[in-house]
Structure formats: structure tokens, C-alpha cells
Amino acid sequence: MAQWACVSAANLSCQATIVNTQKQRNSPGCDAFSFKGSEFMAQSCRFSSPQAVYRRPRNGVCPLKVVCVDYPRPDLDSTANFLEAAYFSSTFRASPRPTKPLKVVIAGAGLAGLATAKYLADAGHQPILLEARDVLGGKVAAWKDSDGDWYETGLHIFFGAYPNIQNLFGELGINDRLQWKEHSMIFAMPNKPGEFSRFDFPEVLPAPINGIWAILKNNEMLTWPEKIKFAIGLLPAILGGQAYVEAQDGLSVKDWMRKQGIPDRVTTEVFIAMSKALNFINPDELSMQCILIALNRFLQEKHGSKMAFLDGSPPERLCAPIVDHIQSLGGEVRTNSRIQKIDLNNDGTVKSFVLNNGSVIEADAYVFATPVDILKLLLPENWKEMPYFKKLEKLVGVPVINVHIW
């Protein structure tokens, strides 16, 4: 019995992430490796065909078989959430040009700051985007080493359930930079180190039946009694909609699971991964609202849980096109521009941003798109006791480190 390894192409440099290993019935003593990515990977590796490659066997050695599959972009454009996001962003471009454009300074050039500047420029205003570091992207930043390889801050997945970012890709004309993978979720099994378990969503079934089918077909992580309790426990989330989701904010993931009668092992085996993927927080600390927001989208949208990866580094393949768009409309993007302090007028409103190099930037409006810890450090003293800013004390950043194993 040989091992069949499914490997997902992550970028154009022909690096690959092993996402699943499961036993299949192959020829005795023959190992086959299936690379599930896109044509780009096949071309990058100079494969003669994106379908399969065979090497002549050496004495006593079975030939290597590589299969590359290019999954098409799912039909997202007709979904209600995508259409809503597309209409909202189109209002910026369609709005009458302002007689006096606003000069808006934005602190932080992560995706939030970049998107803010992009849509302000679309509306005819003049954004100035300030980034403290020499690289754009914030949490999706990446750096190239001396060998030309990219180091990223984390594994970045673009779900079908993200209508705003999917719409942004379309507006920039870079939809082809997303490499879609097969519709499955693959989990490492904590109680079986080195083994993985799949939840496969059939293409022929609509939501939420495809998600229920994926749960029922999985026999590695969940027993039948656990699956039944899990499915019954999820019914309120499926039927209750957004109002039900918002009402669960006071319960942690662990508390909600127990309230619904879902076994603790489901939380440990499945939802610890979801909790850490969404907010880097354990299930006993994370609000169930966060999980239900994601689950509700995955269960209500056929392609909501389908995943795509960028075909290269985020700064080059995603951030750079946004910057080009901003600059084409008269906006500015400045790196190495760290804010030293927020200077105030006598009435407590913002007068200017003072940078570390001593320069002063004044504007008509100011936006912070930075991590909460940075805003806390820069908050003026006479703002800290205001009820609005007082709430920042309850917001705590989560330190995270990522390790990529290729």
C-alpha cells in the first residue's frame, strides 16, 4: 500500500505545501505524488504537460507521476453578497466629483489602509498613505532573501466568502492571480500526528447541503454520534441568520458548543483550528460570533468555503496594483514614514501628523488603519479619557508567529 500525497501549489517559485496524505490503492511499492495547483506551477517547473509527467524508471525504482490540475474561478459574481459589495464600491466611482477634493492622510499601508486610499481616490479625493516600514501589506507583507526566495508573514487564503476582496481583485483586473484549489478543507488530526482528514464539498450540491454532506462523509475525525450532535447543534446557526449570529457574542466557542450539546472533542479536533485561523485565539477565549460569521457564510454560499492562493508574493501581486491605481488617480503612497505623534488643535481636533523624520503633514481628514497597539501608543493624553477612546483598553493585540514547512 503506497502513499498518495496531495500537494497544493503556493507560488510561482515551484514551492509546494503538503496539505494531505492519505492511503490509496496503488501498485505495490510505487509512490505517486499529485501536485494540485495551476498551470503556472507546471510551467515554472518546466513540465512538458500540466496534466502528467513520467520519468523513465531506474532499476527497481517506480516512475514519478506528477499531476497538476488548474481549478477554474468559481461563479462568485452572481451571489448576493458579491453583488452588494460590487454595488457599494461602484458608488465611489459613480459619485459626482467633489468641487473641493479632500486631502486625507491614512496611517498604515496594510490591506485596510490600501483599500481606504483606493476608494477615496475613486471618489475623487487625494489620499496620502503613510507606511512606517519599507514594505507594504501589513499582515500580508513579505520579504525577499538573498537567494530571491520570499518570506511571508503568514499563509494567506482568499475565500469565496470574501466579497469585498474578491470584488477588489476584479476592479484591479487581477482575478487571474488567484489560484483556486479543490473545494475541500483539510485538517491535521491532533490525536494522530502526521495524519490528515478531509471535508470534501461536492460541486453538484447547493449550500448548505454540500457542507452537511462534507461533514457526514468524514469518518476520520468525527464518529457518527458526534456528527449527528454537531449537525443538530449547527441548525440554529443555519436557520437563525445574522440576528442569531450577533446574539452569540457573549459566549465563547467552547461555551456555545457545550450549550448546543456538541461533544468537547469536536471543539478540540475541529474548532481549535478554526479559532486560531480566524483570530489566533483558543476556543475558550474567542467569541462564538466570530466563528458563526464564517460558518454562516460557508453554509449559506455554495462557494463560500472554496479557497484560493496568490500566485506570488502579496506585495508584488496584490499591493503593487493597488498602489498603481491610487497613484494613477493622484494619490500618494509613502513608505518609511513612521508617525511620531498626533498634534492637536486647541479644541482637541487633529492638527497634523508629525513623522519621525521631523516632517509635518496636515490634511482635511485623518484615518488610522494600524494595529490597535500602535494606535494606543500614539493616542494623545487628552483623548484617553474620552468614552469613545476609553473602549480601546478592552482591545488587545495578539502576538503571532508563523512557521512555514515546505
CATH architecture of the largest domain: 3-Layer(bba) Sandwich
Strand order of the largest sheet: 15-7-6-19
pLDDT averaged over residues: 83
Low-confidence stretches: 1-55
CATH class of the largest domain: Alpha Beta
Structural class: alpha/beta
| Gross morphology | globular
Which fold name fills CATH's third level, the topology of the largest domain?
Answer: FAD/NAD(P)-binding domain
Taking the sheet with the most strands, its summary is:
4 strands, parallel
Distance between the termini: 25 Å
The radius of gyration computed from the alpha-carbon positions, rounded to a whole number of angstroms, is: 24 Å
Strand content: 15-25%
CATH superfamily of the largest domain: FAD/NAD(P)-binding domain
Continuous helix count: 12
What is the helical fraction, as a range of percent? 25-40%
Catalytic activity: 2 a plastoquinone + 15-cis-phytoene = 9,9',15-tri-cis-zeta-carotene + 2 a plastoquinol
Pathway: Carotenoid biosynthesis; lycopene biosynthesis
EC number: 1.3.5.5
Family: Belongs to the carotenoid/retinoid oxidoreductase family.
